[in-house]
């Protein structure tokens, strides 16, 4: 089966390096016209440099593809609209967005400053909303459009020192599901990918203990280009029946993540009191409690 993005226009945010770059190159190779969006900021979000986005554009053009650079920020409504308008102005349409842009400002929760929380949430969660919302105005008039959002196991499973990042990434999952429900009538799909790959976003991981060093060593063997094929597929018409899902890609593994559903219930005639909750309800449900685990505790095997 041949999967093609011919005649489609795709926006990839955070596309100057890492996973975003690989996705931009892959959708272009599949025939898409690409808006390569990246402000060229540091990992923590400071500064601006147009060269990363332009280098990817030149790579795509050298391979015979079509691409334009965008250096507008996704973290503000007006500039995010300019990113989408760039696709419309240059290509006449927008068929898919890949919301990949992100920053990190890791810190233990009790030391995290409000500005550190807000900055990360604004880029990841607000940025995903702004780009998707702006694109939706055009997508609802088209047929078989697709939104792809990068989430993380930091949000799905939990991680240390990343309350801001985790909150944003789990928020993206809920946002994606809401988009999928609201936009299904217009044949606009919305799915999430939780990528495992060595990139700028993972390069800040601590290596203070042997366990942390081993985890980083495993990640360094996971190539960013392993994420791109799933993004290409989800952007294509071949994925027309895939909507509202959460996938993970880890080297040669692909996951389908579960979504929240009730797993245990208890009933008491007349309702519950504080005392009966303590004596009956919590002991009955305790065996089904989700353990206090982090992402590396849950996904702890070597995929290589």
Automatic annotation (TrEMBL):
<dbReference type="InterPro" id="IPR036291">
    <property type="entry name" value="NAD(P)-bd_dom_sf"/>
</dbReference>
<protein>
    <submittedName>
        <fullName>Short-chain type dehydrogenase/reductase</fullName>
        <ecNumber>1.1.1.-</ecNumber>
    </submittedName>
</protein>
<dbReference type="InterPro" id="IPR002347">
    <property type="entry name" value="SDR_fam"/>
</dbReference>
<dbReference type="GO" id="GO:0016491">
    <property type="term" value="F:oxidoreductase activity"/>
</dbReference>
<feature type="domain" description="Ketoreductase">
    <location>
        <begin position="8"/>
        <end position="204"/>
    </location>
</feature>
<dbReference type="InterPro" id="IPR051687">
    <property type="entry name" value="Peroxisomal_Beta-Oxidation"/>
</dbReference>
<dbReference type="Pfam" id="PF00106">
    <property type="entry name" value="adh_short"/>
</dbReference>
<dbReference type="InterPro" id="IPR057326">
    <property type="entry name" value="KR_dom"/>
</dbReference>
<keyword id="KW-0560">Oxidoreductase</keyword>
<comment type="similarity">
    <text>Belongs to the short-chain dehydrogenases/reductases (SDR) family.</text>
</comment>
<dbReference type="InterPro" id="IPR020904">
    <property type="entry name" value="Sc_DH/Rdtase_CS"/>
</dbReference>
